[in-house]
């Protein structure tokens, strides 16, 4: 397939306060990873998918693929992740092979991302040839504070956005940027930008929020019980 998707699911999810790694926490009866895989499989075009899982959960990830991917399971593989998200993405890139022209990197923890939000990223990568990230405006006022909690100032939020995933890139851009990365970056777009490549934005989606805390998990449960709109 011309599209490759890396689902990073190798984090521990400490902030969720569960014993199992976050991607294997149950959400409305199936794992967060199962929901994430189901989401990307709803794209109209076939994709080569690599799931990056914790080393201790490779069998569990294989079981999710068997359960969710059905006829598409031949396109899905599982590899083990690294210490950092960046190391996990690098493992995914290595496993993806050279066929995909466009690569998406998606957090398993954003498992309710709507298909059209994913498609917008794919389309924009093809149109622009640049890196593409889904973003949303910042709703709250943002302030800088010192270590003691005193307010130093208010940041102009008109220039600020929240960044979601999937982030999309032409394959050769992200492969080259990863090969040249000299330090850890907080997202793939920052790493690609540090290599000198352009990055642009498309509209994100409220449902693409990242499950991080127990509160987020409850929000996701509620959405699945009672879809918005
Ligand atoms: O920890 P956080 O929620 O920010 O991680 C974002 C995504 O990156 C998650 O889906 C997580 O599983 C993944 N990750 C990973 N390998 C790591 C750390 C995080 O695949 N070492």
CATH second-level architecture: Alpha-Beta Complex
Q: Helix content range of the residues, please?
A: 25-40%
- In the CATH hierarchy, the third-tier topology is known as Spore Coat Polysaccharide Biosynthesis Protein SpsA, Chain A
Strand order of the largest sheet: 5-4-1-6-11
Radius of gyration: 18 Å
Question: Which H/E pattern describes the elements?
Answer: EEEHEHEHEHEEEEEHHEH
* CATH class group: Alpha Beta
Low-confidence runs of at least 5 consecutive residues: none
Average pLDDT reading: 96
What characteristic shape results from the CA principal axes? globular
**Approximate strand percentage:** 15-25%
Query: How many angstroms separate the termini?
Result: 33 Å
Number of DSSP helices?
7
CATH evolutionary superfamily? Spore Coat Polysaccharide Biosynthesis Protein SpsA, Chain A
How many extended strands?
12
- Ions, cofactors and other bound molecules: cytidine-5'-monophosphate
Class by SSE composition: alpha/beta
As for the number of domains, it is 1
Largest sheet descriptor:
5 strands, mixed
Site (Transition state stabilizer): 15, 22
EC number: 2.7.7.60, 4.6.1.12
Cofactor: a divalent metal cation
Protein name: Bifunctional enzyme IspD/IspF
């Amino acid at each position: 397939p011309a599209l490759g998707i890396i689902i990073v699911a190798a984090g521990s999810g400490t902030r969720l306060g569960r014993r199992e790694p976050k991607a294997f926490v149950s959400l409305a009866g199936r794992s967060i990873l199962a929901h994430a895989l189901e989401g990307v499989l709803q794209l109209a075009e076939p994709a080569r998918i690599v799931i990056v899982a914790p080393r201790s959960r490779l069998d569990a990830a294989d079981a999710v693929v068997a359960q969710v991917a059905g006829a598409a399971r031949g396109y899905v593989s599982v590899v083990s992740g690294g210490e950092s998200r960046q190391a996990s993405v690098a493992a995914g890139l290595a496993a993806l092979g050279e066929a995909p022209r466009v690569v998406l990197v998606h957090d398993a923890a954003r498992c309710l991302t709507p298909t059209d939000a994913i498609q917008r990223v794919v389309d924009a990568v093809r149109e622009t040839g640049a890196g593409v990230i889904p973003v949303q405006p910042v709703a709250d006022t943002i302030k800088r504070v010192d270590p003691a909690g005193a307010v130093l100032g208010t940041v102009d939020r008109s220039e600020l956005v929240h960044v979601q995933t999937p982030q999309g890139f032409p394959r050769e851009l992200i492969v080259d940027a990863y090969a040249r990365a000299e330090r850890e970056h907080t997202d793939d777009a920052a790493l690609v930008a540090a290599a000198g490549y352009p990055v642009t934005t498309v509209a994100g989606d409220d449902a693409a929020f990242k499950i991080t805390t127990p509160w987020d998990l409850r929000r996701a449960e509620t959405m699945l019980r009672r879809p918005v709109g």
